[in-house]
Design goal:
It is a single chain. This protein has 154 residues and is mainly alpha-helical. It has one domain: Arc Repressor Mutant, subunit A. It has a 3-stranded antiparallel β-sheet. A hairpin with a 7-residue loop joins strand 2 and strand 3. Helix 2 crosses helix 5. The longest helix is centred in the C-terminal third of the chain and has 21 residues. 21% of the residues are buried.
């Protein structure tokens, strides 16, 4: 057992997560986006252009339903997303990205990528792949959403 709390993996992961979150919030500020809003736009613009429910967006972003609901309301007010009834489940409203939302998330993605690039700058591509695999494994164990695996090396 690790006796030095600073060497415990959950502590170290939390510290990295906090630092990345703060850097990402700063990078997204010029776009007037927070993490939940950016995550919703990225999911809708890059992964699911046909739309997702607010609950599913919250799950995929790792935020509470209330946080995602607030994020979606702000995006709706700005004309970055629209909500439409699900074609077969009348009680479900799907969120879809607008053309303006797509343009904004594409610009914001560049800023977010610079945060990621800085975080992994000292890791080789093989180390990055290994870290991704380990984090995906831990995420699955914890019962969280795990995105599809995409090759990052050519």
């Amino acid at each position: 057992m690790v006796r030095d709390y600073g060497q415990r993996l959950p502590y170290m992961m939390r510290m990295v997560s906090n630092a990345l979150s703060q850097d990402l919030e700063r990078a997204l500020r010029p776009f007037s986006l927070n993490h939940a809003q950016f995550a919703a736009l990225a999911q809708l613009g890059l992964e699911h252009p046909d739309g997702l429910s607010g609950a599913e967006l919250g799950h995929r972003a790792g935020v509470t339903a209330q946080s995602m609901s607030t994020a979606i309301a702000s995006l709706l007010d700005r004309g970055l997303v629209v909500r439409t009834p699900h074609p077969t489940h009348g009680r479900i409203l799907e969120v879809r990205i607008t053309a303006e939302g797509r343009r904004l998330v594409e610009r914001a993605q560049e800023a977010a990528k610079s945060v990621e690039d800085r975080a992994v700058a000292g890791l080789t591509p093989a180390q990055q792949d290994e870290l991704r695999a380990l984090l995906r494994h831990m995420t699955r164990i914890l019962g969280l959403y795990v995105p599809e695996v995409r090759s990052t090396t050519a």
